[in-house]
Specification:
This protein is an alpha+beta fold. The chain contains four helices and 14 strands.
């Protein structure tokens, strides 16, 4: 795993005043972790966007805060809903020997090259990510699963077919290894399933039209006034990334 690094400066500006930081190309951030108080930080937008994209929420980031080194996992990334620019990053400081619990993507290897696909069948991924635990240095960027063994429409791949890297375990000790990750489908069967799903969607749409013309509608659908990333939410709440010794 390549080391991902980011330089952070301590940040004095908080609240609504961080809007000027963003206007000047600076991304506000916060570093949580341990018994220490959270540290308000900031960094240049280009470097921060690159780190957020490469590291995601599962790859450790080597932070330098005013010359001091910290290892951290990204807890959350707040993006502008229109421009999609990074607005805020929350980091969780960890130690080399901490056991980190996080979600990583499952990557199918060999798409387009399996015997099943060569005869016109379709391979679809059913699970795209799974929760694992490992020390920071052992966290993989993704769990790889080859589809080379898929031949017929009866074939499938499960979690049990994934070879976990050394030092990596599933977060759930009772994880069902028979959980299907990828299936092979006949194109005609897949089309029939899509057509059936489309019919259900049309029925739901008809019910919505009926409701708008006088039918009963739920009265508890009003959006919350405050939500993560919404107005007045410059500082995100602590997420559920676990760090255990």
């Amino acid at each position: 795993m390549n080391d991902i690094a980011l330089n952070l400066d301590k940040r004095e500006v908080t609240g609504k005043k961080v809007a000027k930081l963003r206007h000047d190309g600076i991304v506000p951030s916060t570093v949580y972790g341990g018994s220490a108080e959270p540290i308000n930080t900031q960094s240049e937008i280009v470097a921060t966007t690159k780190v957020a994209s490469v590291a995601g929420k599962h790859t450790p980031v080597h932070l330098t805060i005013d010359g001091k080194k910290k290892l951290a996992i990204i807890k959350s990334i707040d993006r502008d809903p229109v421009k999609h620019q990074v607005r805020h990053v929350a980091f969780h400081a960890v130690k080399q020997n901490d056991i980190i619990t996080t979600e990583v993507p499952i990557q199918l290897i060999g798409l387009g090259e399996s015997e099943a696909e060569k005869v016109g069948l379709i391979v679809l991924q059913a699970i795209e990510q799974i929760e694992i635990k490992a020390k920071p240095a052992d966290l993989p960027e993704a769990l790889e699963l080859s589809i080379a063994t898929l031949v017929s429409a009866e074939d499938k791949l499960t979690l049990g077919d994934i070879k976990l890297p050394s030092g990596v375990e599933y977060a759930d000790m009772d994880q069902d290894l028979e959980l299907v990750v990828a299936n092979v489908y006949e194109p005609s069967a897949l089309q029939a399933a899509n057509d059936a799903a489309g019919g259900d969607a049309e029925d739901a749409g008809a019910e919505a039209v009926e409701a708008s013309n006088g039918g009963d509608t739920p009265q508890d659908t009003q959006a919350e006034e405050s939500r993560p990333g919404g107005k007045g939410q410059d500082e995100p709440k602590q997420s559920n990334v676990d760090a255990k010794k």
